[in-house]
Specification:
Elements: E1 5-6, H1 13-22, E2 29-32, E3 35-38, E4 43-50, E5 56-60, E6 66-69, E7 72-73, E8 80-85, E9 89-94, E10 103-110, E11 115-124, E12 131-136, E13 138-139, E14 143-153, E15 158-163, E16 166-168, E17 171-177, E18 180-190, E19 199-205, E20 213-219, E21 222-231, E22 237-238, E23 243-252, E24 258-262, E25 272-274, E26 277-280, E27 289-297, E28 300-308, E29 310-311, H2 322-329, H3 334-348, H4 350-394, H5 398-426
Parallel strand pairs: 3-11, 13-21, 22-29
Antiparallel strand pairs: 1-2, 2-4, 4-9, 5-6, 5-10, 6-7, 8-9, 10-11, 12-14, 14-18, 15-16, 15-19, 17-18, 19-20, 21-23, 23-26, 24-27, 25-26, 27-28
The structure holds 2-acetamido-2-deoxy-beta-D-glucopyranose (NAG) (6 copies).
Amino acid sequence: MAFASVWNYCVPLTILTVACLVRTARCQAVQAENVTVLEGGTAQISCRLQNYDGSIVVIQNPRRQTLFFNGTRALKDDRFQMVLFTPRLVRITLTNVSVSDEGGYFCQLYTDATHHQVATLSVSVPPETPTVEVKQEAVEGGEVELSCMSPRSKPAATLRWMRNGREIPGVVSQQDNAKTFSVSSTIRIPVERKDNGAALSCEASHPALSGQKRIRHYRLDVYFAPTVRIVPPPGILREGDSLSLTCSVTGNPLPRNIQWSKINDTLPERAEISGPTFQISRLNPLHNGTYLCQAQNNFGRAADHYTLLVYDNVSVTTTVPPTPTTQPITSHPVTPTLLTLVFALDPKDPGAVQETHSAVPYAVIGGVLALLVFTVICVLIVTIWCSVRQKGSYLTHEASGLDEHGEVQEAFLNGNDASQGKKEYLL
Ligand SMILES: *[C@@H]1O[C@H](CO)[C@@H](O)[C@H](O)[C@H]1NC(C)=O
Ligand SMILES: *[C@@H]1O[C@H](CO)[C@@H](O)[C@H](O)[C@H]1NC(C)=O
Ligand SMILES: *[C@@H]1O[C@H](CO)[C@@H](O)[C@H](O)[C@H]1NC(C)=O
Ligand SMILES: *[C@@H]1O[C@H](CO)[C@@H](O)[C@H](O)[C@H]1NC(C)=O
Ligand SMILES: *[C@@H]1O[C@H](CO)[C@@H](O)[C@H](O)[C@H]1NC(C)=O
Ligand SMILES: *[C@@H]1O[C@H](CO)[C@@H](O)[C@H](O)[C@H]1NC(C)=O
């Protein structure tokens, strides 16, 4: 731009001006402009002429093949078009420019001596939106290695990893592939479970994008072992109620199969399982036990348990059928069991209740009688003892023994009467 080639006697620009002033008619010059175009775009190659006198103008490509000879197409390539040929300006266009079109295009003026100027065509290749490649999977507690790649750009694109508006410095590598560049930026970051789903992005910037960026968004996929939690039903469960448990499972990948089981037992026949839900309708105390929910993925396994206790219908007083009560008795606290028994007697034998009410005076009489019998027996024993003793002493003291004996006999008779009366009474 700063200087122009001249033909004939003309020398560099400063002198040229002077020279041309002197010999206006003869001082011809050609001036070429460098041009930069996006790949696939259209390049304009212009040769400015000064003091053109009708000489032949030749335009050549970087391989020095003649494209146009004084306005006439020479090379059979339709991408080149002569668009302008005036005494001041010769202009051709090149459509669908590729990087292989790069180089110096020659603007030549054939006169007494050949003179040329070179227009350098540069092709710019902006990057496509970069791609992200996982070099090392993100497992909880480990590190993830990610590469952001821009396979083709010219000049080389600049890649930046971003997270929450902050740059994560990466290791950049650049490869030259015949005029274009492949660029990558690799980061390694420690990951935890909470990072699962975190948003990262890789931004490619390039001079041809005029300040804009090509951004690839990436969500961290952090693998972690499952967690399992059974959501227990509120309140207590009674016989006849239905049980519904939900197993809430996390994990990445999310475990597909959720296994339900009962510890040391088989699952009840009535259990209905549908993925994370477990149901038993019409509970009965035989259903009690510990139920397990288990899940696993490639990174581990987890389980939670729920202990089911089915209570019996304590509030029920009159409508308890006698048969089912036998089952819950075993598992029940003592008081309700006794209550059930007492109430169970009630509707069965009303007469029994009446008897228990009138039983009090009978008991008193019975007690009195028992005391009487006891007394009689005592007297009897004493009498027998005395008589045995007197029989021994009878041989020595007859008279005194008789008196005594008479008294005892009377008493014995009386006692006998009393005991007989009691017997009758009882019968
Ligand atoms: C055109 O580009 C060439 C090669 O890049 C350079 O040497 C020359 O100085 C440039 N010319 C102008 C006028 O900028
Ligand atoms: C070259 O082309 C220009 C423009 O068409 C014309 O004026 C000039 O005479 C031509 N020169 C020769 C030598 O044919
Ligand atoms: C542009 O050139 C490329 C090869 O350089 C070719 O594949 C493509 O078809 C061309 N496009 C047009 C519109 O000619
Ligand atoms: C226990 O009570 C519930 C309602 O409180 C009732 O649905 C169920 O049938 C009762 N079970 C028995 C065995 O009586
Ligand atoms: C299951 O049975 C084993 C051995 O019989 C026993 O040690 C364990 O406590 C039982 N578990 C439950 C929850 O009943
Ligand atoms: C409830 O379960 C416990 C433990 O398995 C058991 O000892 C008890 O007998 C069970 N009760 C009933 C009514 O089945």
